[in-house]
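Marked as duplicate of an earlier ticket. Keeping the data here for the record.
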Amino acid sequence: MVPTLGAPATGAGQPRGSVPAMGWRDLLDGTSHRPGPWPEWAAGRGCEFAEDGDELTGRYLPPGDDEHYYNVVRGRWRERPFVYFQRVTHDRGGRGRSNQFSEGLVLQLPGTPRADLLDMTPEQAFRAAGGQLPSTGVWSWRPPDELLHVGGQQPPNHLEGLLENVTAQLAAAPAALWQG
């Protein structure tokens, strides 16, 4: 169920100044919240697509004001499971409203990274192992065996580039990098 914001429309028995109830998508401008190319991109690669993904709230990122996840793609790339999502938070504080858009990519690693690697940032760990993570966005570990990338919204070819780059490095990584 999509959460609603606002109060019922002004009318008999309604307080003056009430606004119509609306879904969170009604508050967004332009087409940035619409599925766009994602359903077709996902289907063309054997992935699952969901327009709404609020079940991800609090799972990968700290909660935000009126936070909503959408354009969720789940699949495998080079045998590595991944979840891609777009997220909007709506700040109702202050005099105006501000929507903050971001995207996230979660890749399942081949195993839990060794403790010495977890003491480093993912960028440092990949460099220490002879690789390099793309410099767009922010990378972080998601215990026990996930790697999270958060950045601004990009088109599908950007996601495909991230997936190809990182999964190729993971495929070539020695087994000694993972615990157990």
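See parent ticket for discussion. The first strand starts at residue 4 and ends at 5.
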